[in-house]
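Obj.: predict assembly geometry.
Materials: sequence records (below).
Method: joint structure prediction, all chains together.
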Amino acid sequence: MRLALAILGSALLAAWGVGFAGPYEQQVLTIAGINALAVLGYQLVFGRLGALSLAQGIFFAVGAYATGLLATRWGLSFPVTFLVSILAPMLVALVVSIPVLRLGSHYFALATLGIAQLGTLVAVNWEDVTGGANGIYGVPEIAAFGQTVPVGSAMLVLVWGLVVFGVILFGLLTQGARGARLATLERSPLAAGAIGIDAGRTRLTLFLIGAGFAGAAGALQAHAVGVVSPAVARFDVMVAILAMAVIGGRGSALGAVLGAVLLTHLPEWFRAFESYYLIAYGVAVLATVILLPSGLAGLIRRTPARPPTRPPNWVATGPLAKSQTGFARPAGLARRPPATLTVAGAGKRFGGLIALEGVDLHISPGRIIGLIGPNGSGKTTLLNLISGLERADTGRVRLDAVDISGLPANHIARLGVARCFQHPDLPGELTAFEAVLAATPGDASAVDRAADSAADRAIGCLRELGIDMLASRRVSDLAAAEQRRLEIARALATQPRVLLLDEPAAGLGENERVDLARQLRQLAEGGLGILVVEHTMDFLLPLADRVVCLVAGRRVAEGEAAEVVRDPAAISAYFGEAPA
Amino acid sequence: MIDALAQLTVNGIALGAAYALAALGFVLVINAVGAVNFAHGDFVMAGGFLAVAISGYLPADLELPGLVVLPLTMLVAAGLGLLLSLIAYFPLRGRPPVSVFISTIAVAIILQHGTNAIFGPAPRAAPPVFGDGQVDLGIASVSMQQVAVIVVAAVLIGAVALVLSRTRFGRRLRAAAQDPEMAEAIGIDVPLMIAVTFALAISLAGATGALLANQFFVSPDDGGNYMLKAYIAVVIGGWGRIHGAVLGALLIGMFEVVVAAAASYVVAEALLYGALLAVLVLRPQGLFGEAEGRRA
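Observations (raw structure tokens):
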């Protein structure tokens, strides 16, 4: 909806500009379109990754200088200069991404600011190349394939045509499952890793594409004004891009277009106030951040990804929830063969504290293993070691024969180890359907893609937990118990071969526990091996095939549930000492 | 040779002392609210112009006008700090830290262009604190203003450190910064502590501006530069460490003076940003810190 508005609005604006605007207004609109392109790219990084990059302005400058230099010094044609202007900032972005992209928020902002400052120094001081304070004059109008694109209506149409193209590209990168993955990555990075999202690759991709957008904008600006002055490398450019993104609406293509058009015209409207309009810029940004956190585009609600309207055919055959015996999962729901997870001699220290020492664990297909122990006994640490959130000091973790110790969390998740967190870690602004959609394998490595579409699979997983009727509700509106099930449904969407749950019954009522236990039992009957960390014994003991008890990082008891609760070591761990 | 080195050392310490004063305010806000005040440098700049403006109102025959100007500047700056917390921090409490980053960028824009509208773009100079003139130390010559910068910075930094570590008020301030919920639970007025921290931090920024605006002049677009210096000082000193920030600032001042003398100011700037990136990559815990959990 908002994407369609952005495209329609861009087209209408261009049409109006060609039909009714004078030359000056046409030029202002052209510049607005150029800004919209730069902001679109910035929305990918700042809006969707939530990474406050302060280098977008310098990427813009790199594009402008590349076009200026190549067109005036070597007289290269537009297709070449434009391509180089897009690729050059992407190359810069690639080089700086190695140190910068893994940094946390404040550090990322500062590092990109440092890069921007270096760029400004180069632009002003490397006079032989950049023309120093004079800049580069006489950048020609665009000419390619025997056609010239003079500044005026032709340039206006070209620029806004590229804006429309940019909005479509933006949509392809940020809609549906991709958008849900980005939201998960921004809001809950740990959970993103646990459902197999490769944060590093996603960040790099969007950072590079964002830089490419800025480069294209810089190149067009050089053609539109005929000059590349060191002003394009000033921090003011970055501030303007940031202001447009914030005021228009963070993360939205419509916001990019709105913000660019509005703020490019602001100086024109406040012409009478001379340079005071820059103060108005600041006031507008401040007011927007405080009063309208989602910007102008936020006034129109985002359209969530729609769950499939026609139920997949397998629904009619009867949901899993009704089956009481054996292997009865819906035919359409693809699943990978279950695997055995083996932990051997796992050890972990935090400073002087021994969190785990020599822990063995074995999760076979179709079995539910309970993991109990007092607070601080290392249960969650063990889950973290298996799922790759923390690295073990000693010991190995194997999935069937594959050694997964020390692999990154997202890699382990994609191999088939799914986990849920003690506190459900879900992006609140998504719908339940989208939250699960984010976990559906999206690339070619996905198993059995033909069997059902990602959307069908997402609905199927919601259905397995009995919450498919919540599909269109926002996650933040769900009750705690519903969020817990949603998180398990999301874990199922990764097509896990082993499932790890951290206190899934915490906060659930009696009936909800019974339901959950039944659902977990059915998953196990479907062949999945499940590890359940739990304090709620009347939930766990009837459910678990075997129970492992950890005390102070060591395994003190292991066996059938009935044995372990009678084990003196386990009892003394919970009650201080064994009852007489 | 020795003379030249001694002279550079004195200049470096004087510049570093001023940066340290700015970095101290910057890190206080980071610790109190976990957010970066992007406008901090613009408050340093504003301090410079405040000093210029205030000195304009003083009688011309006043001896050592700087001694009057400095406390007045700090007082007005403290008021501005309070205002900053009211418009750019408190309305955004509970939102992601990036919101405060953006709101303070907005304040920085307003300050920069507001100052430009009032005073014009030309550089201005504030009166010296102890008067003009040079002190000859034999191997180096120190201007009275450099002495003033070092003395004032040392006194203010020492006073802040004493207040934070020795007084009941300082303990409350630190408690509110470390664990706001717990502090609230034991009856500390956390919002008040945050407001006071902003006032103190911006007052220190104002002092920095008043001190630097004599020797180096001040113009409306200087803010970004000071903000970066404070930011870099905090990074190389170890995120959130007060002592680290002060040490980091001294290091930056020294580095800038030495490299500028050996090569040029541009080279000094470029190397500083290069060094910043290297620190971020190789020692994210800062140059002086122990490796520990990252806070940013």
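Conclusions so far: The longest helix of chain A spans residues 199-225.
To do: check interface contacts against the pulldown list.
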